[in-house]
Design goal:
Layout lengths: L1 H4 L7 E5 L3 E6 L3 E7 L2 E4 L9 E4 L1 H5 L8 E4 L2 E2 L2 E2 L2 H15 L9 E6 L5 H13 L4 E6 H8 L10 E6 L4 E7 L2 E8 L3 H16 L1 E2 L2 H11 L11 E7 L5 E6 L1 H24 L3 H10 L1 E4 L8 H9 L3 E3 L6 H11 L14
Parallel strand pairs: 1-9, 9-10, 11-17, 17-18
Antiparallel strand pairs: 1-2, 2-3, 4-5, 4-6, 7-8, 11-12, 12-13, 14-15, 15-16
Helix pairs in contact: 3-4, 5-11, 6-7, 6-8
Length: 347
């Protein structure tokens, strides 16, 4: 009752602190932040002397275009904090934008992290959020949050298989009775796909393209399984031999071939997880299949390829990019029900 009376002053937040994007879910307003996990800082040899110039969309616009005096940093690497001070600045910025100015209380914050991260990495996430203004921090494993966000019945005594493919990591988990039975996390995901496209352009065309260009190609033209699309793709970059700008045209088939290695890595970790599935839960997976979440799960025909390789039904979540943060928000809204899915601190 008191909670409802003072709801205007509470601003609990769920945060998907992703390698590529950070999403913030407000308990009453839904998703209020969805921006790149990118920070632009003035260059300095001493980390303490760096000045934050831009965060999120504005910082990403500067990537590859900034002078030497400005660094454009992605402080989250492979799903965990690589640059503590920059992550703290980014979190402070997003939290201050998400909470109402009239709020009298610091927010409780739930943050999802990859399964299998170390205790040191967990502590770094928690301390970063506390330093950014949270009064209390809850940690949730990404595949659990993704499954809840995809409306999977994870609290029931049945097998639920989730594959969450983000920017830095792919999380594969079998969940039953609110807990992870088997989990595998590999650092093969969207970033590695972008790198594969950049490498392909270097090797075949001696053309250097930026990471942002590679990401755009992947999102708009990438495919995991052959389609009828034969439309040529125009790419601009720098000729590595002559050192001048150049334009080339490539086909979707080339992009698909370039993406094969990272995609095979994702399929392999799905197979490894299936091989370890207890027989009592294997029948559930056979009937229910696999649910895909994460931004890279939207890669064209990826669901068809995984279905072909595993022989199981494969479903794309309704909002794959939002599943993790929505699931984290549901946990925060009903902590009593989801108490057992929270990561217990050991430090």
């Amino acid at each position: 009752m008191l909670r409802s009376l003072f709801s205007a002053f509470f601003s609990d937040l769920a945060i998907d602190l992703g390698t590529a994007n950070t999403l913030v879910y407000h308990q009453d307003k839904g998703i209020v932040i969805n921006e790149p996990s990118v920070v632009a800082v003035s260059f300095a040899e001493e980390v303490e002397d760096r000045e934050v110039l831009a965060i999120g969309n504005k910082a990403k616009e500067m990537a590859g275009k900034a002078p030497q005096s400005i660094q454009v940093i992605r402080p989250i690497k492979d799903g965990v904090i690589a640059d503590f001070s920059t992550t703290e600045a980014m979190l402070k910025h997003f939290i201050s934008r998400a909470i109402p100015s009239r709020s009298l209380f610091r927010p409780r914050v739930a943050i999802c992290i990859p399964s299998g991260v170390t205790e040191v990495e967990k502590r770094a996430v928690e301390e970063s959020a506390l330093s950014a203004g949270a009064r209390e921090v809850f940690l949730v494993e990404e595949p659990v949050a993704a499954a809840i966000g995809a409306n999977m019945p994870i609290l029931e005594p049945s097998g639920n298989m989730i594959v969450d493919i983000g920017g830095g990591t792919t999380e594969v988990a079998l969940i039953s009775l609110g807990g992870i039975v088997i989990a595998n996390s590999v650092r093969t995901a969207g970033d590695q796909m972008d790198e594969a496209i950049v490498t392909h352009m270097k090797k075949k065309y001696s053309l250097l393209i930026g990471d942002t260009t590679a990401e755009t190609v992947k999102m708009h033209h990438g495919e995991a399984y052959p389609s009828d699309n034969k439309e040529k793709i125009t790419l601009k970059g720098r000729d590595l031999i002559r050192g001048i700008p150049r334009t080339v045209q490539i086909t979707p088939d080339e992009i698909r071939e370039a993406l094969q290695e990272p995609i095979r890595g994702i399929i392999e970790v799905i197979r490894q997880t299936l091989e370890k599935t207890p027989p009592e839960l294997a029948s559930d997976i056979h009937d229910r299949g696999i649910v895909l979440t994460g931004g890279v799960a939207q890669l064209k025909n990826l669901d068809l390829l995984i279905k072909k390789e595993t022989g199981l039904p494969v479903t794309l979540a309704e909002n794959p990019l939002l599943s993790v943060v929505v699931g984290t928000g549901k946990i925060l809204k009903d902590l009593d029900t989801y108490q057992n899915v929270l990561i217990k601190r050991r430090y």
